[in-house]
Design brief:
Elements (H helix, E strand, L loop, with lengths): L4 H8 L4 H26 L3 H26 L3 H22 L2
Helix pairs in contact: 1-2, 2-3, 2-4, 3-4
Length: 98
């Protein structure tokens, strides 16, 4: 799974609320991507059934954090969280097609 530079930085060097949110977004995307690949290989969506509800909760949480960052005029955090959220949503869309 490819990660953006800001996502990598959230794991390697950054602290703070935005970094934690980015780490959560990446982990949720990794779970969905892994479960999607496994479902394609095995032809069973059992793993997806466990992962998708967790990812949906994270999307809602991340969307709130994007709005919080916008209100705080933290443009960098808002943009980075927004892009990471869209990537998670894209992974969810792909998984839900199975």
């Amino acid at each position: 799974m490819l990660m953006s530079s800001w996502e990598v930085a959230a794991f390697v060097s950054e602290d703070g609320p935005a970094a934690e949110d980015l780490r959560r977004a990446v982990v949720a995307r990794a779970l969905v991507t892994s479960a999607t690949e496994k479902a394609k290989e095995l032809g069973s969506v059992a793993g997806l059934d466990r992962v998708l509800p967790i990812a949906r909760v994270e999307v809602s949480r991340l969307q709130e954090r994007v709005e919080d960052a916008k209100q705080a005029k933290d443009t960098e955090a808002a943009v980075n969280l927004g892009i990471s959220t869209k990537r998670l949503l894209s992974a969810l869309d792909e998984a839900e097609k199975l």
